[in-house]
Amino acid sequence: MKYATNLNLNQNELQNAIAQNLTTEPASPKKGQFFFDTSVNKLKIFNGTTWEVPGDTVAASSNNGMLSVNGSDVKVYELPKSTGTVLGGIKVGAGLSVTDDGTLSATGGGTADAVAWENVIGRPTALSEFTNDTNFITNTVNNLTNYYTKTETYTKTEVNGLIGNIATIQIKVVESLPGTGQSNIIYLVAKSTGEEEQNVYDEYLWTGSAYEKIGDTKIDLSNYLTKTGDGSNLTVNGSNLGTKIAEFDSDLDSLATVANTGSYNDLLNKPTIPKAVNKDVKTLSAATATYTVI
């Protein structure tokens, strides 16, 4: 039976009523129209634009810990950070992998998060625990035999102290030698009476038990030429240097005269040139030839 007008029940119950069962949504619906969708087994009501299921629509969300309720994400659970006392979630870092069933494995080949050396389990604590596959430890120990140990060397401070303690040679003028001398001092004592000269001293060195005369400051210049000397007491290649100088001066004087006058007659030891003699010309006759002699 179909009604062409609204049916008013006057606030009475509609008992034992069943919504229309359909497998597809009715065509040209009106706002408020409803039916039971047997394809999904849900009651649907038309809101004037689309068909919707009465009540809240809950669906999965792409965000972790969220549910989509009526199209909006609602936080239902927040996974805590895993700590030493809290069971929670962890993030997979470099050098690790997680399979689809949640199995965590170490893969290596990446840079894992920094871990303090003291927190590494089973870490070696001595070189002897490493495998000496390239004889590294042995070679290192053997090579150290070519080096001095700390007890066999000096520090910079010690070296500077040793250098500062090195005694340098000193020269000291004294009137008389002290009873005990120092090995790094040369003592200068004025020449004794009869040998005294200005600034001339005998030189002494303390040997540890006595003084040793090592010389004096006097310089013998008797065999040296003075600026005003004539070289008469020197011999060069068997000839007296003074005589050679005198001869050289004489030759220079002669050369100076020729240089000033330019005359051949001023030359010394010049050769004698014979004069030309004029003779009468005579003619000699012979049977075969005539010669003219000048």
Protein architecture, described:
The protein is 13% helix and 22% strand. It has 294 residues and is an alpha+beta fold. Among the domains are: 32 residues, no CATH class; 76 residues, no CATH class; 32 residues. The strands form 6 sheets. A 4-stranded mixed β-sheet has the order 1-2-3-4, with no helix packed on it. The protein has a 4-stranded mixed β-sheet with strand order 10-11-12-13, with no helix packed on it. It is elongated, with a radius of gyration of 68 Å. The N and C termini lie far apart (193 Å). The mean pLDDT is 79.
Please give a quick description of this structure.
With 294 residues, this protein is of the alpha+beta class. It has helices spanning 136-143, 156-164, 241-261; strands spanning 21-22, 34-37, 42-46, 51-52, 58-60, 66-69, 72-75, 96-98, 104-106, 170-174, 185-190, 201-206, 211-216, 235-236, 239-240, 282-285, 290-293. It contains 3 helices and 17 strands.
Q: Work out the number of β strands.
A: 17
Given the structure, what is the number of helices?
Answer: 3
Largest sheet: 4 strands, mixed
Beta-strand residue fraction: 15-25%
List the helices and strands in order: EEEEEEEEEHHEEEEEEHEE
Approximately how much helix is present in the residues? 10-25%
Q: How far do the termini sit from each other?
A: 193 Å
> Which structural class matches the secondary elements?
alpha+beta
Q: What is the averaged pLDDT score? A: 79
